[in-house]
Amino acid sequence: MKTNRTASPALMQSLRDVAEVMPLLVVLLGLFGGAVVLGILQSFGYAPWFGINEFPTTRYFERLWFSSDFWVSLGLTLYYGFAATLIGLVISIPLSIALSKKFRASRTFAALIRLPLMVPYTVGIALALVMLGNGGLLSRISAGLGLIDDPAQFVQILKTHGGCGIIAVYVWKQVPFMTLTLSAVLARKGEDTVEAAMVLGANSRQIFWRVTLPQIMPGIVSASLICFAFNIGAFEAPLILGGGYPDTLPVLAWRYFQDANYAFQLQGMAVVVSLALVSGIFLAVYLLGYRRYERARGRV
């Protein structure tokens, strides 16, 4: 009887907590879950509001997967996503370490790092056009310095499948997020382990590889997962700054959705579902590798 008396208040509190968040869960599951289910149904040919009901059919996936253009678009999508995420990490790790230190201009440094977070993503794309285009600021400065004869001779950075402009916008926007995430992890860990390593005679390189990097690895994993998922799903930067055909998968899906023939929306949904499937596989493999890394270090 005593156990029931102590368990009953805890159970009632749990039920109250569930009841409090239930309206939010219903809205989220209804909107997000409903959209996911509806998108999957459309990709398999169910769209009676367009006068199409071929469910279940896989012809939209077959038409997509057996096309060489799909695999080229997938390669471009993954290239932009991986490159921007990796470059962002390489920049963010030393910035996060510097941000965790105390120095005279530390507040100004922190404010400058946060600045891109306050600028809308589309504004960053516009800045890339103004700065990096053939008639942009850098090309005119180069012409003014005599490095080139005409701004039109400036190296082609935008509108190419190399994606320098796309990657630059992604990196510019995600470096502050990654830096703040990693610096928060460092702040929780404190300086005790670093000071202990210094006392034991470890140099700066050894401290970074054996102490600091393992400490911030959870932050690296979470930040890189979020940024990679955003990078491969964004379509604005590839649409405006990309080299055109073949497009990335989000742009390809957008073009299908914009087609005057509503039947092409089912093909667009097949592109979206395929992209979600590929990203899910990559994220699952990434997390599996991270868990193996943690087990090897004895953390799991």
In short:
The protein is mainly α and 300 residues long.
Structure characterization notes:
The protein is mainly α and 300 residues long. It folds into two domains: 1-35; 68-296, MetI-like fold, CATH 1.10.3720. The chain contains twelve helices and two strands. The chain has helices spanning 2-43, 59-65, 68-99, 106-114, 121-132, 137-144, 164-189, 192-199, 204-233, 236-241, 249-258, 264-296; strands at 46-47, 52-53. The longest helix has 42 residues, at 2-43. The mean pLDDT is 84.
Task: Produce the secondary structure layout.
Layout: H1 2-43, E1 46-47, E2 52-53, H2 59-65, H3 68-99, H4 106-114, H5 121-132, H6 137-144, H7 164-189, H8 192-199, H9 204-233, H10 236-241, H11 249-258, H12 264-296
Antiparallel strand pairs: 1-2
Quick tags:
MetI-like fold; two-stranded antiparallel ribbon; 12 helices; mainly alpha; 2 domains; single chain
Q: Please state the structural category.
A: mainly alpha
Please outline the major beta sheet.
Answer: 2 strands, antiparallel
Query: Radius of gyration over alpha carbons?
Result: 25 Å
Helix percent reads over 70%
CATH topology heading of the largest domain: MetI-like fold
Helical stretch count?
12
Read across the widest sheet, the strand sequence of neighbours is 1-2
Rough shape? Answer: globular
The CATH homology group name of the largest domain: MetI-like
| Amino- and carboxy-terminal Cα gap | 38 Å
CATH architecture of the largest domain: Orthogonal Bundle
Total separate domains: 2
Tell me the fraction of residues in β-strands, as a range: under 5%
Mean pLDDT: 84
The tally of strands reads 2
Class of the largest domain in CATH?
A: Mainly Alpha
Order of helices and strands: HEEHHHHHHHHHHH
